[in-house]
Amino acid sequence: MELYEYNELQSRLDAIAEFDDMSDDAMLAALVEQLRPYLRNVIGSTIGKGGEGKTTLATNLAYMLAEEQANRDSQGKSALPVLYMEIDANGDGRTDLGLDATVFNDHGKALRDAITHDGPLKVVKDVRPFLDATISGRHCSDIAGRINKLADTHAIAAYLLLALLLAQISHLYRWIVLDFSPGDKAIQRAGLAASTHLVSPIHNTDNAALRGLSTVTRLIRANRRLNPEAQLCAIAFLGFRKVKGEPTTELTNVRAKIEKLLTDAGMDPGLILDEYVRDARSIATLCRNHGRPAREFALAATGQLRDANGELVPRPRDENGRYVDPQSSVNLADDYSNLARGVITRVRQRNAELREKQMQGAS
């Protein structure tokens, strides 16, 4: 791993300097239209409620997408890295990737300044093969306030700062996985302005989880001026029981509730992925405690993971000192692999539709 700085970026603050409450809508639309083609590889993980697993989903998705690029590279095919970016004061993503105790952990200061003050974007390269990451943390709690302050002068154009940042580096990455908090509307608006494809996890069966999903769909509609292409492309269930590989009535019941919610909102119930992640709380907790995504943790549990020097990594143990059950680890990893394939299939279909629409508009 190494820290890399993107220093030669055009000013994001200059790009919004001319905007205010009296700005012509056509001027904002022109800027948005210019940005959109550069952001079609941005996948946002979010939901309007905490505790649903958005960060776990995002880190595992980023890891699986990076593994795909590493496999392509090993076959002599073209490949680009994947970038994981979390905008959250809690910073659980850095924990999931084992970055907490590294020298790169600045608790989100550089990321905050890159988004709001035209600072250089600092990225930890090669967190895993073909996976880069930014560092989040307590300093990210300042982002919302700074964007809102800029919005006092530059109106809604201020919420394009993240999009303006990512548009300048998107060509260097095959995918950018953006993990943004449900807790603040400024962060939501900035994340929705930058993302083209949105994935929402559902972990709980209570009505609050359904309201969280409803919040996302409402915010997407409310932010059309900032991003006419943002769309929820997948809803993923996390942490539901499987019996002999099949879902239980708990999942089928909550699925029916969400299908009705989507139908009532005029949306496609087919957004719900058939693939889902089983309830494996003890393994999932150990994955986070060891700083490893599910697939990597499974490799360690089965004695197949090697370090940078080619040495086998010791098999992980639970809190009682016992070796982690390899099969349970593999089952969880397989669920995330299947889920990632389901998500990326939807994303590629949407990108094909957007390109066709763009070509039709040009003609």
Automatic annotation (TrEMBL):
Gene3D superfamilies for this protein: P-loop containing nucleotide triphosphate hydrolases
Start and end residues of each AAA domain: 46-223
Bilayer-spanning residue ranges: none
InterPro entries xrefs: AAA_dom, DNA_Partitioning_ATPase, P-loop_NTPase
Name of the molecule in the record: AAA domain-containing protein
Lineage: Bacteria, Bacillati, Actinomycetota, Actinomycetes, Kitasatosporales
